[in-house]
Specification:
By secondary structure, this protein is mainly beta. Helix content is 2%, strand content 50%. Strands 9, 10, 11, 12 and 13 form a five-stranded antiparallel sheet that branches. The chain has a four-stranded antiparallel sheet with strand order 1-2-3-4, with no helix packed on it.
Length: 261
Amino acid sequence: MYGNFSAPKAQEIVAARGDVLELLRPDATGRLAVAASVAVHGALRALAPFRLTGAPRDCLVVGSDSGRIVVLEVVPDPAADEGSGALLFKRVHCETFGKSGVRRAVPGQHLAVDPKGRAVLIGALERAKLVYVLNRTADAALTISSALEAHKSRSLCHAVAGLDVGYDNPVFAAIEEDCGAVDDGEAEGPPGRTLTLYELDLGLNHVVRASADPVPPTATLLVPVPGGGDGPGGVLVCCEDVVEYRPPGGGGKGALAAALP
């Protein structure tokens, strides 16, 4: 994941290598050098950078097999010599929401962040999705709200993404597959997939399922399109041999499709 983690204009990459989390930055020769590394003693499943509104640099949210949502920031190593530039990952927040282990119904596999840094969605392979509101205290310390549920029973989740909606209520998109008919032995064909939009109402502090539109059965990836004043918004749905554009708001109106060469 690319971001500015140690300084406002630093160009850095955070990489997960099994159970090791590394911060990489280009050196004078253009090669990537390891600036910080830590063994997490677990399985790193998803990473996502985010920046609170007005903050000078990025933080990192981690999805793993711990059954927790963890927020990290990069800070100077206090044990290193002054001026050495040594860095380390500091845990800013950690909240437990489920059992440890790589489980189908415990979130940690999917991560999506609102582009304005106001909320994060962490999802499981099956059914469970949790949304956390990100904020700051009076002394600029990061805080996250209690978990808001956005579960969809008897469904599989293939991908999630945070849509760029400017400063409107945060919206998250998910590719979901209804497996209820398969579980009941009543399916006459492959399960259908839908592009589902979840809207976080910041005023009422709850998540609503805004829309669910059918997408091709091979849809597996979501790419958010810049919105607000920078673009039309919406999301690209990547499928086998075709990429579809779905405009914001749901409903499927105004959708476009382009075949891959």
